[in-house]
Amino acid sequence: MGSSEKVTTAPAYSYLGPAGTFTEAALAQVPEAAGKTWHSVNNVGEALADVVSGRSVAAMIAIENSVEGGVTATQDALANIPNLRIIGEYLVPVEFELVARKGTTLAEVNIVNAHPVAYAQCRGWLEKSIPHHGHIPSSSNVAAAASLLENDTADAAIAPAGIARHYDVEVLASGIADNPNAVTRFVLVSKTKELPAPTGSDKTSLIVELPDDRSGALLEMLEQFATRGVNLSLIQSRPIGDEFGRYRFVIDAEGHARDERVADALLGLRRFSPKVIFLGSYPRADKVTTEHSKRYADGIFTDARAWLAEILGD
């Protein structure tokens, strides 16, 4: 059953489906999405295309995993599709189960169907519990479980916890992820230009290109944040693709664009870089209050501007 059968009213939201995915669990955390139409899509590009076309008001997509790092497909899509904004982030614990067709025992499992990322996160358990197993890559975690009901190639599959509520499979083992604290971070992406109000617990996401490939260029970019007391929680390089050696940087900075220190850093970046993509300022999912030195309080920046205005006679 497709998740779009749950509801019939607009507006709509898109997510990587089908029902039972971690992305669906993330979308379930959005109060505004309750009771609305949910479009199940096959990939990040399709989800964002729904937003661009207006088919959906927003799309939920994975952007970072605490074990595997940034989701490059999402980062690259956000870099290349204009006029999109992140309006919220959501955290989902990564919990996997080994499932099989009804009547199958763990001793009978030789071939495991799994998404490559899920397989990597469960490999230690698999090598200990099924040391001579083979692996068939799957396009998604849910598709791995669904495939068991469509063919006999694999004996079992790695799937999200709770998948048995959606498919007629038997759980052979639960909690099989090697890192029990693994979490995936999701973001809700829209076309809106309206910024959520600052909460004191915010994050600002950017994509920044270096002006040229030379010694010290990356340091100069980082100094735009450091000299204003803005901490970075993520910085990851991605090739731009137009020529060898050219990179863009995906950045998450602590704070909101309406915070004076963050706004000043944005101005510095804009002067420094040939291309800065502002992806949004939004509340942090972990609700942790952003800490910074009193030297970078809003009043320090406004007083400095007032001092300069007095000198200039403005």
Automatic annotation (TrEMBL):
<feature type="domain" description="ACT">
    <location>
        <begin position="206"/>
        <end position="284"/>
    </location>
</feature>
<dbReference type="InterPro" id="IPR008242">
    <property type="entry name" value="Chor_mutase/pphenate_deHydtase"/>
</dbReference>
<protein>
    <recommendedName>
        <fullName>Prephenate dehydratase</fullName>
        <ecNumber>4.2.1.51</ecNumber>
    </recommendedName>
</protein>
<keyword id="KW-0584">Phenylalanine biosynthesis</keyword>
<dbReference type="GO" id="GO:0004664">
    <property type="term" value="F:prephenate dehydratase activity"/>
</dbReference>
<dbReference type="InterPro" id="IPR001086">
    <property type="entry name" value="Preph_deHydtase"/>
</dbReference>
<dbReference type="GO" id="GO:0009094">
    <property type="term" value="P:L-phenylalanine biosynthetic process"/>
</dbReference>
<dbReference type="GO" id="GO:0005737">
    <property type="term" value="C:cytoplasm"/>
</dbReference>
<keyword id="KW-0456">Lyase</keyword>
<dbReference type="Pfam" id="PF00800">
    <property type="entry name" value="PDT"/>
</dbReference>
<dbReference type="Pfam" id="PF01842">
    <property type="entry name" value="ACT"/>
</dbReference>
<dbReference type="InterPro" id="IPR045865">
    <property type="entry name" value="ACT-like_dom_sf"/>
</dbReference>
<keyword id="KW-0028">Amino-acid biosynthesis</keyword>
<comment type="pathway">
    <text>Amino-acid biosynthesis; L-phenylalanine biosynthesis; phenylpyruvate from prephenate: step 1/1.</text>
</comment>
<dbReference type="InterPro" id="IPR002912">
    <property type="entry name" value="ACT_dom"/>
</dbReference>
<keyword id="KW-0057">Aromatic amino acid biosynthesis</keyword>
<dbReference type="InterPro" id="IPR018528">
    <property type="entry name" value="Preph_deHydtase_CS"/>
</dbReference>
<feature type="domain" description="Prephenate dehydratase">
    <location>
        <begin position="12"/>
        <end position="191"/>
    </location>
</feature>
<feature type="site" description="Essential for prephenate dehydratase activity">
    <location>
        <position position="184"/>
    </location>
</feature>
